[in-house]
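REQUEST FORM: STRUCTURE PREDICTION
Request ID: SP-0412
Submitted by: Lab K.M.
Chain count: 1
Length (residues): 95
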Amino acid sequence: MAVEKIPSEDIVNKKASVDTNFDQATANLLVKAGLGLSIGVVASALLFKRRMWPVTFFTGAGVGAAYADAQRIFDSVSTLGLPVKNASTQAKDSA
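STATUS: Completed
RESULT:
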């Protein structure tokens, strides 16, 4: 039984890609949650008589947007929620 060897360069490049994706997703989370928090504080102070729910709502919306972006970063196969068919599936459908 022959075992296919993977070059070490491919392993390092894949790990670097995952690290880059994780860094991008983390930075995205911090920025969007921070913006949501800021908008929530301003909305709470100006419009809603200093209630807590606008801060919570807008921070949650920022985290949710960052989560959706992270899904697209790590799983680039699905775009806009529609999975891309495999070549074998397309061949079966066309036959």
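NOTES: The chain is about 75% helix and 0% strand.
Reviewed by: T.R.
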